[in-house]
Amino acid sequence: MNEPMHFDLVTIGGGFAGLCSAVRGAELGLRTAVLEAGTDDDYLCSSRWAGGIFHVSYHDVKLSPDELLAAINHQTNGETDQQLAAAIAADAGRTVDWLASHGAVFTQGSQIGWHRFALAPPRAPVAGQDWRGRGPDRLLGELRRRLEQRQGRLLLGTRAVALRLERGRVVGVAASKGGKVLDQRRCSRHCRWRVSRQCRAIPQVYRAAA
Question: Which residues pair with 106 in a beta bridge?
Answer without folding.
Answer: 119
